[in-house]
């Protein structure tokens, strides 16, 4: 990818695709405000560098899913206001629309270092269809294009792919570092490489699990993700979150582990997971160990006030559900993380939003924060968990992507990245 160093931006209009898809909340006075500005702050290095080099910035982003309709509650107005707070003295004007004559006139009136924030690009029905007419209208607003929206780079939309083919372009600092960090994680990690995979749906992450089975030293499974694996081994999961599709995916992964000669304990073995010799695979990879919980925190319903207990084992009694990994598992996973040269974490270990079931996720978060190796967080709920426990500044890289992170780790080419080689350098 070309970077900002490849563009002469002084005095030129630069259309910057950012990911300002931030969570919103209703304030005490009924006004809409930003609940978490992490994604806005992540784009500041690119914005400040371009401003410092005399660029005239036109920022474009989506916000939620207005489905091609103008939804007042999803306006970029709160984002423009937050930018003015984060960039004291910067003129950050909100455009009245996404494209059109009035917006074009505003871009032509920009001075060096000034910013114009376009309205929510998904107000335009052509955005998600990668409509060529919308891409051309966006291209008219600028002389150069920079994509810094890693979280949207897996979408072939008008503002992420279409317009990139029409203007000289480059990757912003955030996109550049995201791709470099995640690619390095898969291609040349410090060993041992430990992947901690949680969350709820095996189907959503089976491709990532397959990839880590080939390159990691250990995969630690937690959260509701573990129940399809336990069910595939013949354990009772009772009311725990588990469906037939996920069990089939889990069975596939366990078969891979068995074919590689590695243990998938301790659910199958009381030894805590055997340490079989590393099996070298073509290309220098290795068949990972797959670690599953050996104990659980279970409850009679999904509620903070539910009756709960620690289950010494993994066969969930009828009428109960698993809502967290148990203390023995948390300790074992923490020890694995402490020995790792590289840790990748995606997905909580339990229902951490309910305090009685937060201990497993807290233990993993603290272990990752204290790990001496390289630590990479796969965004989404893992990032929320780190913030929940005040540990977001204690890791090496916190990805701003969700689906984009997973797709890159799976080995897919991201349309928003691929498009950056589609036009000449100015």
Architecture overview:
There is one protein chain. The chain is elongated and about 70 Å long. It has a six-stranded parallel beta sheet with strand order 5-6-4-1-7-8, sandwiched between helices. By secondary structure, it is α/β, with parallel strands linked by helices. Helices cover 34% and strands 15% of the residues. It has helices at 38-52, 77-86, 101-108, 132-139, 158-162, 173-187, 202-215, 226-232, 244-259, 327-339, 359-370, 380-388, 403-410, 415-418, and strands at 13-17, 24-26, 32-34, 56-60, 92-94, 115-117, 144-147, 169-171, 193-197, 218-221, 289-291, 296-299, 308-311, 321-325, 342-346, 374-377, 397-398. The chain has two domains: 4-174, 3-Layer(aba) Sandwich (Rossmann fold), CATH 3.40.50.1260; 189-410, Rossmann fold (3-Layer(aba) Sandwich), CATH 3.40.50. The two termini are 15 Å apart.
Q: Report the helical percentage.
A: 25-40%
Low-confidence stretches: 269-285
Predict the CATH topology of the largest domain: Rossmann fold
Number of domains: 2
CATH H-tier superfamily of the largest domain: Phosphoglycerate kinase, N-terminal domain
Shape: elongated
Mind sketching the topology for me?
Layout: E1 13-17, E2 24-26, E3 32-34, H1 38-52, E4 56-60, H2 77-86, E5 92-94, H3 101-108, E6 115-117, H4 132-139, E7 144-147, H5 158-162, E8 169-171, H6 173-187, E9 193-197, H7 202-215, E10 218-221, H8 226-232, H9 244-259, E11 289-291, E12 296-299, E13 308-311, E14 321-325, H10 327-339, E15 342-346, H11 359-370, E16 374-377, H12 380-388, E17 397-398, H13 403-410, H14 415-418
Parallel strand pairs: 1-4, 1-7, 4-6, 5-6, 7-8, 9-10, 9-15, 10-11, 15-16, 16-17
Antiparallel strand pairs: 2-3, 12-13, 12-14
């Amino acid at each position: 990818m070309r970077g900002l160093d490849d563009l002469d931006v002084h005095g030129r209009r630069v259309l910057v695709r950012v990911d300002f898809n931030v969570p919103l909340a209703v304030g005490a006075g009924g006004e809409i405000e930003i609940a978490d500005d992490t994604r806005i702050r992540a784009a500041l290095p690119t914005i400040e560098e371009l401003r410092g080099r005399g660029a005239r910035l036109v920022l474009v982003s989506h916000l939620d899913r207005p489905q091609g309709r103008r939804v007042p509650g999803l306006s970029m107005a709160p984002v423009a206001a937050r930018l003015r707070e984060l960039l004291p003295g910067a003129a950050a004007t909100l455009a009245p629309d996404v494209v059109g004559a009035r917006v074009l006139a505003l871009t032509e009136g920009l001075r060096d270092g000034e910013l114009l924030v376009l309205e929510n690009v998904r107000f335009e029905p052509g955005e998600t269809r990668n409509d060529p007419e919308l891409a051309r209208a966006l291209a008219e607003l600028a002389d150069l294009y920079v994509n810094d929206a890693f979280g949207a780079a897996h979408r072939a939309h008008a503002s992420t792919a279409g317009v990139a083919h029409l203007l000289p372009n480059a990757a912003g600092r955030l996109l550049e570092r995201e791709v470099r960090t995640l690619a390095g994680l898969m291609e040349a990690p410090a060993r041992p490489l430990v992947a901690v995979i949680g969350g709820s749906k095996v189907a959503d992450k089976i491709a990532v699990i397959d990839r880590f089975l080939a390159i990691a030293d250990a995969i630690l499974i937690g959260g509701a993700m573990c129940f399809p694996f336990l069910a595939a081994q013949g354990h009772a999961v009772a009311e725990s979150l588990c469906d037939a599709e996920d069990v089939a995916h889990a069975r596939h992964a366990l078969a891979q582990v068995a074919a590689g000669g590695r243990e998938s304990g301790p659910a199958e073995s009381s030894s805590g997971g055997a340490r079989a010799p590393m099996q070298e695979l073509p290309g220098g990879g290795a068949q990972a160990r797959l670690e599953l919980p050996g104990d659980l925190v279970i409850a009679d319903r999904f509620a903070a006030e539910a009756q709960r207990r620690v289950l010494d084992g993994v066969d969930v009694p009828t009428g109960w559900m698993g809502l967290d990994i148990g203390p023995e598992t948390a300790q074992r996973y923490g020890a694995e993380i402490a020995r790792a040269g590289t840790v990748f974490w995606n997905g909580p270990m339990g229902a951490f939003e309910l305090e009685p079931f937060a201990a497993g996720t807290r233990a993993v978060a603290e272990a990752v924060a204290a790990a001496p190796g390289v630590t990479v967080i796969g965004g989404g709920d893992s990032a929320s968990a780190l913030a929940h426990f005040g540990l977001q500044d204690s890791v090496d890289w916190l990805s701003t992507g969700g689906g984009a992170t997973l797709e890159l780790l799976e080995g897919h080419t991201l349309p928003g990245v691929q498009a950056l080689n589609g036009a000449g350098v100015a």
